[in-house]
Design goal:
The protein is built from 1 helix and 11 strands; from the N terminus they run E-E-E-E-E-E-E-E-E-H-E-E. 7% of the residues lie in helices and 46% in strands. Strands 2, 4, 5, 6, 9, 10 and 11 form a 7-stranded mixed beta sheet that branches. It is mainly beta. The N and C termini lie far apart (40 Å).
């Protein structure tokens, strides 16, 4: 059974930091495209950051550039999101997503990252972890 389990969400004050983790388990040998999304009630889920694990190519939404860092531990199939200088606007449920599809060529891999891994049909989702930032 394939599972993605997020952790690390918490309540912090503005300016604080959190590090989210997502452990991927199951029969998948390697998760190639992995991403973090967030959603607040009444709004669409938005891509926050993505990484193509084989190449290290990354993508960030504009509002988190310079504050958030996505990384991946391939040995433990774990995805991280380090979040610094948190703002109340970062309050949301954060979801991990991962796609094991191995894409040929740099172009397709970069495109997958730019689309936060949503272009394929094998994207899996975790259940989310709540991040609350108070002013």
């Amino acid at each position: 059974q394939v599972r993605l389990v997020e952790s690390g969400g918490d309540s912090v004050q503005a300016g604080g930091s959190l590090k989210l983790s997502c452990v991927a388990s199951g029969y998948i040998f390697r998760w190639n495209c992995m991403a973090w999304f967030r959603q607040v009630p009444g709004k669409e889920r938005e891509g926050v950051a993505a990484i193509y694990t084989v190449t290290g190519s990354v993508m960030y939404t504009e509002s988190v550039k310079g504050r958030f860092t996505i990384s991946h531990d391939s040995a433990n199939n774990t995805l991280f999101l380090e979040m610094n200088s948190l703002e109340p606007e970062d309050t949301a449920m954060y979801y991990c997503a991962a796609d094991p599809t191995r894409l040929p060529g740099v172009g397709r891999r970069d495109a997958a990252v730019r689309n936060y891994c949503t272009g394929g049909s094998s994207l899996r989702w975790g259940l989310g972890t709540q991040v609350t930032v108070s002013s």
